[in-house]
Amino acid sequence: MFQAIRTLLEVEKRLSLHPRTRLCPLFASTTQQKRYFTSYKRPFLHSASQPAPAHTCCFPINSASSKFVTIASVNMSSAVEAKKTSKLEFQRLPLNAVPVHYDITIKPNFDNFTFEGVENIDLKINETSPNIVMNAVELNILKAVWKDSGTGKEQVAQTISVDETTEIFTAAFQPPLQSGTGTILLEFTGSMNDKMKGFYRSKFKGSDGQDKYNGVTQFEATDARRAFPCFDEPSHKATFNISLVVEKNKTALSNMPVKEIQAYPEDDKLHVVKYERSPIMSTYLVAYCIGDFEYVETTSSDGVLCRVYTPPGKKNQGKFALSVTAKVLPYYKEYFGIAYPLPKLDLIAIADFSAGAMENWGLITYRETCLLVDEEETSATSRQWIALVVGHEIAHQWFGNYVTMEWWTHLWLNEGYASFVEFLCVDFLFPEYDIWTQFVTDTFVRALELDSLKNSHPIEVPVGHPREVDEIFDDISYSKGASIIRMLHRYIGDADFRKGMNIYLTRHQYKNTFTEDLWRSLEEASGKPIGQVMGTWTKQMGFPLIRVQSEQNGDTRVMRLTQEKYWADPNLKNSKEHNDYSWMVPVAFCSASDPNTPICQTLMEEKMVTVELPGIRSDEWVKLNPGAVGFYRVRYPPELLVEFLPAIKNKILPPLDRIGLLDDLFAMVQSGESSTVLRTLDAFKNEDNFTVWSSISNVMSKLNLLFAYTDYHDQFKKFGIHLFSGIADSVGWEPKEGESHLDTMLRSLVLLRLTSFGHEKTIQESKRRLNLHRNGDQTIPADLRPVVYRGVISEGDEETLEMMLKMYRESDMLEEQDRIGRSLGLAKNLNVLKKVLEFAISEDVRSQDTVFIMISVGMNKVGRPLAWNFFKENKKFLGERYPSGGLIARLVKHLCENFVTEEDARSVTEFFAENPFAGTERTVQQVVESIRLNEQWLKRDERLVGEFLTNAI
Ligand code: BES
Ligand code: ZN
Q1: In which band, very low, low, confident or very high, does the pLDDT at 59 lie, cut at 50, 70 and 90?
Q2: C-alpha–C-alpha distance, residues 76 and 927, integer Å
Q3: Which residues are listed for Zn(2+) binding in this entry (predicted)?
Q4: Which of 113, 565, 587, 674 is 20 to 30 A from residue 121's alpha carbon, by CA?
Q5: What is the Cα–Cα distance from 156 to 944, expressed in whole angstroms?
Q6: Do 463 and 549 have their domain in common?
Q7: Is 143 within a domain?
């Protein structure tokens, strides 16, 4: 059968080649966005003679939408305006034929990087119809034959066509197919590409030093159709029998365990590996990996065979993830009340990998940097990140795989939920990480920041075309999704939350859901109006700013709260949409007498409420939003704000509340409600908590980016050095015997910040340590390497760069390469920076890593214009390398968002209007908005901050 295909095989043009990899906590989740409220109804049972209308839209599926508004942007150039409104043509697959079971055999050819496929799909024909319509892209479909199971008759398709734009494959039959059941046989060929999507190849160095390739898959969101023709929508669930025809000495894995291995008579170097039938599942979760791997294994206490596959020679680096996996499975079983349903779970490290990790059922794929832990080379930050990623992807095995969103509009159900649960499990496994506190400085704050833009979007966002789908893997789906689940969890309590989750997962097992299905289950469990409350958070973008006023009445504190939409742009408070927003906000308070115990938890259902808190002394402070649980900002009048300062200083206020106050205040500065945050930082002098310092560090690094454009940048850096020097002295350079995980992270955080302020002593020490390290005299601990590399390159010349590039090339640990790569952009020397950019797109750098090296240049004021020009000059190369989605959007965001002039805003707008990059449309709108906000902010505060700094130093 495969011989026959081979004769038809087109000679594939060799795809342009690329290089090597990693992701990091700093840019952990995908970051880009989207906006309009249009959606696509599914054309039901249309036939070829009556094709579905080209466009069926315009309200969100399953939503009572109209109450909520989405704000169109202002100030955009007309070209961009025009583009925004032109929707990409899209319609969902018709329902006349739906899949029940796939039997797929794939035979890859590692000589010419093509593959051949034979597929039998059992279909249910709901209505007599001449056409079978499914998805395919960049496949050469050679044959389609229908076999009716009732009559047993075979029928060859009259025509087969693939529309590469709509990614639709149509097989037309005459006479039309009768309703009932049958099987369509398809034969096809394709190529293993270098784009990290579909069935693609991933490069590694063989033991002989030669380049070799593994064949791996990445199908989410819409790329299974690049590997085999299929009904590539999450609601078209079916069972899968996968078979792989592979060389006998290669490891070949798929979602399920091997059922049998058969001989392959045509070539005795090959055999056919057949896997067990999968449960009913969506196409985006199918996976297979073929290549050179080794593994470590264990069986979890709940009886699941777990393995971590690594590149040859690195199996010890799989041990950490393996132990996390073996503990997480029984934890989730207990938490959800449902056991992991497959007999095995493999985790595999893939060198070339676009995302951080992918939750394919039973075969989770990871970037090497998100899975492998080397006892010497891995930093505490990476180890923590790996625990989170492993916890995240395993959470999807229930939330996503077992129960799946009906359509991508509900993507947040997968990603927001998994991004919440990963913290639950890491908190359980590693209480010493204090991970829930870190949730706030990482996930929560990131979501608030993005969601304060007018170009944000609601969590539930109608999407159609694959490019639009790619765009919503962003901080709204992930971080806002996780943050509102955390708020909900607190609102209904853990017991009801778990009960509701169990109802949801049991009721919808092996099926698809809408957001409302989750609310219904939680409502049943808790008796609370979850749908009504949560709809205000998922169907409208943004979040409230709660203004507080208070007054003492005997021993009662009377708190008056008013909510309005928070905008980063103060001008929007006057927009006509401003008043249309309102939320149902779970609120709580805490007070000086017992800061750790929330009092008076209630639901704010109106725009204005008065809450009476009995038993509060007149000299006590009262704080809203203890633990920073509610997804909102709080604005206190200055006289109330100062009352908190002693409690920050003496740390009576818990860390999360110190962070909450600081970050809310910073948001007030950003939106023009307050003039500076620097004065308040004085209260944090005695701070020793890692997470609070990381919040201070976030504030200071944002200001450092902005004030780089002022005359007083040097003064600002001095202020920063002064602020961080106390804690730097106390953490020192030397790791202390038996110190905690968080103290290790604190040291690198503090020293990194000092480096970014140009602190000469720290930079000199970095140079000294790198010399010792290079001479083999004293190895730098992994945690301190970012500090050292950045310090050294920041004052380095071309020779320094060459030395670092040599280290990059010589390292075979992708985490180390990533650390070096992300440091390079801190150079100040223009020639060095130019070379760094060239290096980023060279053969030495994997295409997934290019982006982070370029970003490091773009984060540097001197490098920013260089990086932006380089992006423009290489637009063709970059556009081809990243055809859509995550990486390119991230690049655009970080290269552009820190510009500060209207001229830059225009140049970015015009460039992307003329050179659109798929999947970055919303990101472009957001960065342009951010640039204008930066400009406004500088204009507003520049003078005052300058005066403050002059007096402070
Ligand atoms: N389902 C995603 C992987 C994915 C992302 C597929 C984007 C397609 C497009 C996976 O579960 C995920 O969320 N991965 C994260 C890591 C996670 C720990 C936040 C990622 O890749 O960034
Ligand atoms: Zn995920």
Answers
A1: very low
A2: 12
A3: 392, 396, 415
A4: 113
A5: 78
A6: no
A7: yes
